[in-house]
Amino acid sequence: MTIAFTAMPTADAEHLRRGGADAYGLTPERRLAQGGGYPCRYCLDFIEDGAPYLTLAYRPFPALQPYAETGPIFIHADPCQRYAATEIRPPVLGDSPDFILRGYGADDRIVYGTGAVTLRENVEDRARTLLARPEIAYVHVRSARNNCFQCRIDRN
Fold first, then answer.
1. How far is Cα of residue 86 from the mean position of the Cα atoms in its chain?
2. Cα-based distances in Å from 52 to 38, 58, 144
3. Given Cys at both, which of 4, 8, 89, 114 links 156, Cβ 3.0 to 4.6 Å?
4. Residue 16, class by beta-carbon neighbours within 10 Å (0-12 exposed, 13-18 middle, 19+ buried)?
5. Which of 144, 143, 137 is nearest to 153 (CA)?
6. pLDDT tens, 112-125?
7. Is 90 exceeded by the pLDDT of residue 36?
8. Which of 24, 23, 5, 37 is nearest to 101 (CA)?
9. What pLDDT shows up at residue 89?
């Protein structure tokens, strides 16, 4: 099975960059990157030192429901290219030693028993294992330290 790393949808990024409300109804905060460690959830690369970025609350689900986790993320304040090399692990997944991978059903609910801290080098294999299960529609990759959404993994 081939997998695809999926970035934040273009419509979401454009809405936020135009000053649209985040998942909490707030205007994204504009800041300048100081040092590394600010992963853009749209290009799935790191925001360059000194570049403007937005901090905002993001809910990577289509609707409110009990499992629709919301948390802080960063995106470039200025337009950047959406991550396109979907079959290749994106740069934002190369910085941390591990991540949380969790499977979700077609109803956007967590499939219990799928969440696990996964070493960086095992991300692809773990995602394939989860996506081989028919009840799992997609996988979220989250920070193992802060539980922040990084990207989604889909069947390709």
1. 13
2. 11, 18, 25
3. 4
4. buried
5. 137
6. 999 999 999 999 99
7. no
8. 5
9. 95
Domain locations in the chain? Answer: 8-76, 86-155
Question: What is the length of the chain?
Answer: 156
Q: Please state which of the four CATH numbers 1.10.10, 3.30.70, 3.30.1740, 3.30.2130 is assigned to the domain occupying 8-76.
A: 3.30.1740
Distance CA 54, CA 40 (A): 9
Angle, vertex CA 114, rays to CA 98 and CA 57, nearest 5: 65
- Whether the CA torsion 39, 42, 44, 49 is positive or negative: it is negative
pTM for this model (two decimals): 0.94
Q: Tokens for 5?
A: 């790393």
